[in-house]
Specification:
By secondary structure, the protein is an alpha+beta fold. The protein is built from nine helices and eleven strands. The strands form four sheets. Strands 6-9-10-11 form a four-stranded mixed β-sheet, sandwiched between helices. α8 links the parallel β10 and β11. The longest helix is centred in the first third of the chain and has 33 residues. 11% of the residues are buried.
Length: 261
C-alpha cells in the first residue's frame, strides 16, 4: 500500500512537472465588487503592480487560467514532495511481516507460553487448507482429467489453471462449497486465502461463453455473487473462453498477480 501510494504521488508530480514548462511569471489576484469579478496579474515590474497587479482583459482570460493553474500546481507540488519524502523514509523501515517475525524468531518453548497478537500466516494457511469440505460430485460421462496435484477436475482449462497455481506455489481449494443468499450453494472453481488481507477469494472460469444457455447460467451465477457482496475485481476473479478464444496463460498470470499474490 505504501508503494502504491508512492507511485500515485510520483505520477502526480510528473503531471505537475510537465505543466510547469513555459508558465507565465507572476501570480493571479482576484477582486470582486458586487457581482463583478476582476483578474489582476501581479508581477515584480514595480511595487504597485506587485501588490495590486495589472488588469487582465476578458480577451486574455487564458492568462488568468494559466496563473491560477500555476498557483494550484505549486501548492500540490509542495504537498506531494513532502509526502514522498515521508513515504520514502517509512518504506525503507517498513516490513509487511515485521510483527509476525517477532513471533517466528522466538524459541519454540517460548512460543508455547504466549498468544501472538496475530496468528502467523503459515498457521492460518494450514488451518484453512486442512479444514475439510465436500466438493461437487462428478456425474457419469465426465472425462477423467487430473492435475499435477493429483485431483480430478472437469476440463482441460481447469487443469491449466490448477497446474499454474501449483507451479507458483499457490494453495487453493477446488470446488469448495459456498452458500449464497437467495441462490443456494455454489461451487467456485477455485478458492484462495489471500495473504495481503486474509480474505477468501473465488475464481470462476466460464469456458463456453459462446453457448447461449451456458452464458445465461454463468451471468445468473455472477449476479448472485454480486448480490451477496462478492464483487468481480475484489473477491471474485472471472476468466472466460469461447470455442474461438482459448484460455491464455499470460492472462492467467496477470490475474494472479493482480488479485491473489
Amino acid at each position: 500500500m505504501l508503494e502504491k501510494e508512492n507511485t500515485r504521488l510520483q505520477s502526480i508530480k510528473q503531471i505537475i512537472n510537465n505543466r510547469s514548462i513555459d508558465v507565465p511569471a507572476g501570480s493571479l489576484r482576484i477582486t470582486s465588487t458586487g457581482k463583478y469579478v476582476q483578474f489582476m496579474h501581479c508581477t515584480d515590474e514595480n511595487n504597485n503592480r506587485k501588490s495590486q497587479g495589472k488588469y487582465i482583459k476578458r480577451e486574455n482570460l487564458s492568462l488568468a487560467k494559466q496563473l491560477a493553474q500555476k498557483a494550484y500546481d505549486q501548492r500540490v507540488q509542495k504537498l506531494v514532495d513532502r509526502r514522498i519524502k515521508q513515504l520514502d523514509k517509512l518504506t525503507k523501515e517498513y516490513d509487511d511481516n515485521e510483527i509476525e517475525e517477532i513471533y517466528n524468531n522466538l524459541h519454540s518453548v517460548r512460543k508455547t507460553l504466549i498468544k501472538p497478537v496475530e496468528i502467523p500466516w503459515g498457521h492460518r494457511l494450514a488451518d484453512w487448507k486442512n479444514t475439510p469440505y465436500t466438493g461437487k460430485e462428478f456425474g457419469p460421462g465426465i472425462p477423467e482429467i487430473y492435475t499435477k496435484k493429483g485431483e480430478r477436475v472437469r476440463s482441460k482449462s481447469e487443469k491449466i489453471l490448477a497446474d499454474t497455481f501449483f507451479d507458483m506455489g499457490i494453495e487453493y481449494k477446488y470446488e469448495c462449497p459456498l452458500k449464497l443468499k437467495n441462490f443456494g450453494v455454489v461451487y467456485p472453481d477455485f478458492t484462495f486465502l489471500r495473504k495481503r488481507d486474509g480474505k477468501e477469494i473465488y475464481w470462476e472460469h466460464d469456458g463456453r461463453m459462446d453457448d447461449p444457455e451456458y452464458a445465461e447460467k454463468a451471468v445468473r451465477k455472477i449476479n448472485s455473487y454480486i448480490a451477496n457482496g462478492i464483487f468481480p475485481g475484489e473477491k471474485l476473479i472471472i476468466s472466460y473462453e469461447t470455442s474461438g478464444v482459448v484460455l491464455n496463460d499470460r492472462v492467467i498470470k496477470m490475474l494472479i498477480e493482480k488479485y491473489i499474490t
